[in-house]
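In response to the reviewer comment on reproducibility (Comment 2.3), we provide here a single inverse folding case reported in full, input and output, so that an independent group could reproduce the run without further information from us. The structure tokens appear first.
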């Protein structure tokens, strides 16, 4: 495979393609790749900046034989998903790439996957860094995305209120099912960040998070953050409905074929990572507002539980309880697998 130097890589594979079709560059204050740093134009009056970084490491978040266009899509998508979860609109992003070799074919496909999503979301690549790795070191791709939103309107993790409903977008479990089949699905390879949903949830959702590590673990993050908020210390209890879980189409087909049992399907839906759906809370009074948003965007929004302040809980203890329609808890084997929760990094 042909190789080229870092500067040629930046010029040929990044610099021009990164500008194409991006309205950002029409602003005379904007400056993209090529200088020592990028320039972001002044934000509209009353907006604040939002920043998120996420990286993908070879052998840990993806395998060396992954389709490069899907990987390029994904490294930007996971960052846009973080913006979506805050309710922010994308402004621009940078890419840091640590590469063993500059493999032109592989990298053009990678850039193509990334820049296609960048154009679709009007989020231009405005800079980055490229470094050479020692032989055998795993490659790393790190994206930092910049977004914006009206000051004070961010959807934070710590906003839960007593009695809020918990909602989830889309369906769950298909990404974990695909991993188990070693057959990467569209959902796993090309997650579609819920940007439009995040924007519409501002002023409606009280708290939000994107599902990267698994639903159970993200519910835990909402409870923990909210229980550490400034007001009187208390825990939160989440009452969750097993029968309300919106199972992915792949999982439902596998259940029909009896390839998997319902405990397995539930486990993947509750603990599977890489979904990039939004988990959010909203007041019971806003049920119809949330449903309208789902209809208007053509996105399934499902109410899967609720939270209440647990006044009896000492300190900041939080609990998550799953029950089916009859009020029956999961069997002990399934409960143990749920308790192991999502994906722990350390
Ligand atoms: P410097 O030495 O000033 O850091 P570099 O040679 O690292 O300059 O980068 C030159 C230009 O190319 C900069 O504008 C930088 O933002 C951009 N650049 C470098 N690598 C990447 C990359 N992987 N993706 C996007 N832009 C990049
Ligand atoms: Mg540099």
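Designed residues, in position order:
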């Amino acid at each position: 495979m042909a190789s080229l130097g870092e500067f040629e890589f930046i010029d040929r594979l990044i610099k021009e393609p990164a500008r194409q079709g991006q309205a950002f560059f029409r602003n005379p204050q904007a400056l993209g790749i090529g200088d020592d740093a990028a320039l972001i134009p002044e934000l509209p009056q009353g907006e604040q900046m939002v920043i998120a970084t996420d990286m993908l490491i070879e052998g840990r978040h993806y395998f060396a034989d992954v389709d490069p266009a899907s990987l390029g899509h994904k490294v930007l998508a996971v960052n846009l998903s973080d913006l979506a979860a805050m309710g922010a609109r994308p402004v621009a992003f940078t890419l840091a790439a640590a590469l063993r070799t500059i493999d032109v074919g592989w990298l053009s496909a990678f850039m193509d996957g990334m820049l296609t999503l960048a154009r679709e979301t009007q989020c231009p690549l405005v800079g980055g860094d490229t470094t050479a790795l020692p032989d055998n070191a795993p490659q790393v791709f790190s994206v930092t995305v910049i977004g914006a939103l009206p000051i004070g309107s961010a959807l934070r993790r710590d906003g839960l209120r007593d009695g809020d409903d918990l909602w989830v977008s889309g369906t769950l479990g298909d990404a974990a099912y695909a991993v188990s089949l070693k057959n990467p699905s569209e959902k796993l390879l090309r997650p579609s960040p819920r940007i439009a949903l995040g924007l519409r949830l501002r002023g409606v959702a009280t708290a939000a998070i994107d599902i990267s590590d698994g639903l159970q673990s993200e519910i835990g993050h909402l409870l923990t953050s909210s229980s550490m908020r400034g007001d009187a210390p208390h825990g939160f209890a989440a009452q969750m409905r097993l029968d309300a879980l919106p199972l992915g189409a792949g999982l439902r087909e596998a259940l029909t074929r009896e390839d998997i049992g319902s405990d397995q399907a539930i486990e993947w839906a509750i603990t599977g990572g890489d979904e990039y759906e939004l988990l959010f809370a909203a007041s019971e009074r806003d049920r119809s507002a949330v449903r309208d948003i789902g209809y208007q965007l053509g996105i399934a929004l499902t109410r899967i539980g609720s939270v209440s302040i647990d006044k009896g809980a000492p300190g900041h203890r939080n609990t998550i309880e799953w029950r089916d329609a009859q009020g029956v808890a999961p069997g002990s084997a399934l409960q143990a697998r749920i308790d192991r929760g999502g994906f722990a990094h350390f």
